[in-house]
Amino acid sequence: ASVRCAVSSGWPISVIEYLDTVIMPLLIGFMLFGRYHTGENSMIHQTLVLTALQQIVANPEHQPELIAKLFSPHYRQAVDGHTLDYPQFIQHMALLKQITCSMQLQILAIAAAGENVFTHHWVNVEKRDGSQCQIRVLAHFIVRDGQIQSCVELTQLLAGEHQDRDLGSRR
Q1: How many Å apart are CA 94 and CA 114, to the nearest integer?
Q2: CA-to-CA distance for 18 and 12, rounded, in angstroms?
Q3: Span of 30-34, 79-83, 138-142 with lowest mean pLDDT
């Protein structure tokens, strides 16, 4: 197997190439053309994802009851090569609320087509120990039957301590 060089961002070049050549053109295509092919459900799915991000991630309180309303009990999340099932996702969110005092989202782009919702957002994190970090997230959500079924994320630590690069999947 060949080893790829790392760049200053900490991501292998192959991942950056993948983002530039595959993910971003898809996201731009959905943004430019998706609204003409998506229908009303795509807007509902997009709103559901934005609601989940704001009320679950950005809210400083852990809310397992709200998670149960917005996420399928069969939910799966893949983040940077780590997979979380629904109970592990609940555990992950509980831990994030314990170690952070604030997580603010900045949505840079969102696109929806059918049951697919793509987001590109930053999460600005303030931890209880006073440290801060900023994380870039590229996420692909699947929404079906009024709940988020799955999410595949790529994250990149933009600022902060190296040990915080796993905040997207830490349990």
Answers
A1: 31
A2: 10
A3: 30-34
- Euclidean distance between CA atoms 42 and 50, whole angstroms: 12
Residue appearing with tokens 């592990």: 88
Q: Is the pLDDT of residue 40 over 50?
A: yes
The residue type at 28? I
- Position 134 scores a pLDDT of 95
DSSP string, 112-162: EETTEEEEEEEEEEEETTS-EEEEEEEEEEEEETTEEEEEEEEEEEEES-G
Mean confidence (pLDDT) of the chain: 83
What's the rounded Cα separation, in Å, for the pair 76 and 149? 7
CB 114 within 8 A of CB 43: no
Residue 111 — left, alpha, or beta (φ > 0 → left; ψ -120 to 50 → alpha)?
Answer: beta
